[in-house]
Predict the structure.
Amino acid sequence: MIDPFLLTALLLVFASVLCLYRTIKGPTVPDRIVAVNVIATCTIVVHVLIAFIGNQPMFVDIALTYALLNFLVTLVAARYLATGRVFA
Amino acid sequence: MSVSSILSTIFLLTGAFFFIVGSIGLNRLPDVYTRLHATTKCDTLGQALALLGVIFYEGATFTSVKVLLIIIFVLIANPTAAHALAKGAYMYGVKPCEITSLDMYKEKVKRRSK
Amino acid sequence: MRSSNWEENIASFVLTFIILFVLWAALSTFFDVVHLSLGVVCSLLVAYISHDLLIKPKGTKHVFVVLKTAVRFFLYFFWLTTQIIKASIDVMMIILNPKLPISPEIIKFDSRLTNDVALATLANSITLTPGTLTLDIDEKKTYYVHCLAKRHGDALLKGKMQSLVARVFGGEE
């Protein structure tokens, strides 16, 4: 009987690899940012699953921080696309 | 196998399935706006289901509270990020694909000169 | 006038401090003297710097009104959950269909809402419901929405969601 947590983590890594194809091929810059955003969401869930597979609760805190950082990075990238500058 | 463990397995695998559907959509759809449709909806539901499966497995502890905080935050943050990215892509000059029948946003936007 | 302003500042400061400290306790999970006092110091500092950002001192309402809005928002959230599940299954059917039946369009509609929180909630709800994605809201409260197919845009223009959001926040003119 395979561990469902491990199976889910493997499926999510497979989904990330599918997104990696779009990240490399993507014709425009926004396509790449969307793909990286999806990979980051996968990574958050995989972090939580790793915390339970390896019995290390610290990884849940890392996932929380990663979620906050992912949101910030996406907003800054979108702002750069829209206005051409990051600050002010 | 207890009831909660079976329930958590079902939720985890359904969440993973929605993630894979979102990734397939990211590769199949024609332009950045339709890709955002696929990734935003499927990923938001997928992470909520997968992390709910984790909560069912864990029960009522402080770790569950943290995981619940992650669910709520991503549920708010993911549509907001998609909204910002769609506007950024339009301002950047990515045109909607040819089969787009109606574009009411065009007259509103003064395209940024490259 | 001066004194009422001062009272509102204190109220928002205390509320921000309580929220921050509960979050600290839930995330740290250590309940000894050292960690809790550290949390009190950090929460006081952050609440002093940013208490006017989380809760606007001018817009303070009666506690009863806030509670009623919270309960209504909870009910609205249940409706939104069913919509999210429907939206994901709808998009899944489109993606897994070999013919890829899409005909995208960008439509606009005017909103009657007045409240900022209500406008943001409506924008996020539109993004999470079937086949629609908010592109922009301009200063005249016009929404620009990208639809995956024509039937999605027609469903949005009926305006059921907008009246629901207006009922939750009471922000309709």
User: Anything to note?
Assistant: Strands of chain C lie at 105-110, 132-137, 142-147. DSSP finds six helices and three strands in chain C. The helical segments of chain C are 2-28, 33-54, 63-96, 116-128, 150-157, 160-169.
